[in-house]
Each structure stands twice: as structure tokens, then as C-alpha cells.
Amino acid sequence: MRILAALSGGVDSSVAAARAVAAGHEVVGVHLALSRTRDALRSGSRGCCSREDAADAARVADVLGIPYYVWDLSEEFAEDVVAEFVASYAAGETPNPCLRCNEKIKFAAVLDKALALGFDAVCTGHYARLGDGLLRRAADAGKDQSYVLAVLRPDQLAHAMFPIGDTEKPAIRAEAAALGLRTATKPDSHDICFIPDGDTRGFLRERLGARPGALVDGSGAVLGTHDGVHGFTVGQRKGLGLDRPAADGRPRYVLGIEPVSGTVTVGPESALAVSQITARDPIWCAGTPDGPFACTVQVRAHGGVAPAEVTPLPEGVRVTLGEPLRGVAPGQAVAFYREDPAGDVVLGSATIVR
């Protein structure tokens, strides 16, 4: 097959491309230039998409003996990922930009372009497994990325390859070293790639400005003020800016965010427990269900897992949890999984409304 290998400049995509070559495919490497200021987008293991990453990707392609190109998708990334991220926080939500990047960039813009150019599939270094058209969790549970891939439709999965999903991370680094790839020891990128200094609040303040509001408790009593709801997320404990402790001396947590009035409600950790979730815009990876079904749900990239019953609705889904989860926030995705002997199958996902 003709395979387009997305080379981020990291070890995972390097080994994924190497495995595609070893399998006998005709492979072409492409690095995605997603930032308009690439010189600023790496600091240690934070960030990605820098000139350094593009150079590392080029060296990998050279070692593997495959053609290499750079595709500038910075305009699409700014509009479909960064702008949506900012707008979501302004609306009092907690978005996952990696999930949107997979949905809008890697498996929409890139895959569409690849198919138009005659490629059969796009190969990436995600930790997930594909088999019989089904998306499954990776063998390395600590690195599993199936949650951020749960936005992919069956027709997109049919043209995707995740060659490293059956291998644990230490073995991937060892394989890269054996191949002579300089990315073998390169630190993993983490956090939000377009906020390399990790200061999400500062990034949002720069773009949204000050939007003062009140911090209140469950009774509505004003405890303090803030500069904008974009500085908070449900479940947050630190950085609330309160000058006095709760009456019982226990920490307060963000329980709710109301963007129109600018009100942020705080309270005890016990009040974070959620037993039902409503979500919109479901995407079904393994076929549209014909009625309610039991499954396991996940509400964060790492953690937030519980048994549940999911009921499809005309406007989305209702998720009734078998055990309460804490810190569930609007804007997050809820992903649905089915237990399977070959590895948990991703059934789909939806965006949490409340």
C-alpha cells in the first residue's frame, strides 16, 4: 500500500514509519507545520512542531530512505484547534485540544489530502490498536491514546495505521536506537503543544482579556472575585485566589462555571461527584447503536473511568454512571468502551454538555 507517515519528529512516529517501511509498504514521510511561530514551540519536553522537530523528522526519513515533505497546516490548526480552544474556555468549558487536532487536522485535513493524492492510509505514532476495522486500547495502558482517537469515524479508521499500539514505550525507544534513529532518546512532548511554557491561564488572558466575576459558594454567598472564567476548570483546587479557608478548614474546589454572569461556584470535594452526564454530537467508531447499551466510559485522557449505561437521544446521549466520577467538566469528551478479549474496543465518543 501507499502510506503517508506523519513524522512529528518524536520517537513514536519515527518507529511507526519504520515499521510501515519494514512491512513492505511504499512510505512517504510528511511533517506537519502547525505553528506560525515554530521557533517558540519547544522548551525541553514541552511543545512540539518546532524547527527542531522538523529537522529531526527529516533525519528520520533520511535514515529510513523515504521521501520527506513539510505540509503547512498552520492556518487550519489556528482556526480549528487554537481558536476553538480559546472559545471553549471563554464559554466555561474544558476542551481537549489533542482530541480536536486528531479530529480536525490529522484525520480530516491530512487524511483527505492524502487520499486525494492517491495514498491508501495515514500512519501515525499513536498508542492504539486497529483490527477488523475496530479501534482498541493500546497494549501499554500507561501510554494508551485511544481516548483522543475516539472522535474518528469508521471511514477514517479504514484509512488509518497505528503500528506501535501493540508495544510498550521502553521497547519502542530500544527499537529506535537499534535502527540508529536520533529520536530514540528525545524527551516526549507533553501538555498543550501551542502553550510550551505551560501557562494556560496566561495564554488565555492574553487573548480574552480581563472578564471580572464572582467566586461564590453553594449558597450563592460571594467569597471573592476573579479576572475571568477562562482561568478555571471544574475540579480545580489550586489558584482560586481566596483569602480565607472554608468554615470546616477543608480545601475548596471549582464545582461550576457560568460564563454569562462570570460566576464561578466553589465547594467541598464531595460535591464534585457526578452520577449522570449529558453529551452532544456523538461520533460512533464501531457503528451506530440501535438503543441503550452498557459499557465503560472514560472522561479524561488519563483516568476518569467507570461502568455506565448509555442512552442515545435525538440531540446526543445520556450517560448513567454505575459509580460516581469527580471533576467531570463540560467541553470534555466522554468515550465509550466495550470489553473484549483482544483489548477494549472504542465504541465512540461525545462532548459533555452537563
UniProtKB/TrEMBL annotation:
Domain tRNA-specific 2-thiouridylase MnmA-like C-terminal: 275-352
Active site: 101 (nucleophile), 193 (cysteine persulfide intermediate)
One matching Pfam family: tRNA_Me_trans
Annotated site location: Interaction with tRNA: 126, 332
EC number: 2.8.1.13
InterPro entries: MnmA-like, MnmA-like_C, MnmA-like_central, MnmA-like_central_sf, Rossmann-like_a/b/a_fold
Assigned keywords, A-Z: ATP-binding, Cytoplasm, Disulfide bond, Nucleotide-binding, RNA-binding, Transferase, tRNA processing, tRNA-binding
Compartment(s) where it occurs, according to its Swiss-Prot or TrEMBL record: Cytoplasm
Segments crossing the lipid bilayer: none
Residues binding ATP: 6-13, 32, 125
Domain tRNA-specific 2-thiouridylase MnmA-like central: 202-267
Catalyzed reactions: S-sulfanyl-L-cysteinyl-[protein] + uridine(34) in tRNA + AH2 + ATP = 2-thiouridine(34) in tRNA + L-cysteinyl-[protein] + A + AMP + diphosphate + H(+)
Region of interest (Interaction with tRNA), residue spans: 143-145
Domain of life of the organism encoding this protein: Bacteria
Family: Belongs to the MnmA/TRMU family.
Function, as annotated: Catalyzes the 2-thiolation of uridine at the wobble position (U34) of tRNA, leading to the formation of s(2)U34.
PANTHER family recorded: MITOCHONDRIAL TRNA-SPECIFIC 2-THIOURIDYLASE 1, TRNA 5-METHYLAMINOMETHYL-2-THIOURIDYLATE -METHYLTRANSFERASE
Protein's recorded name: tRNA-specific 2-thiouridylase MnmA
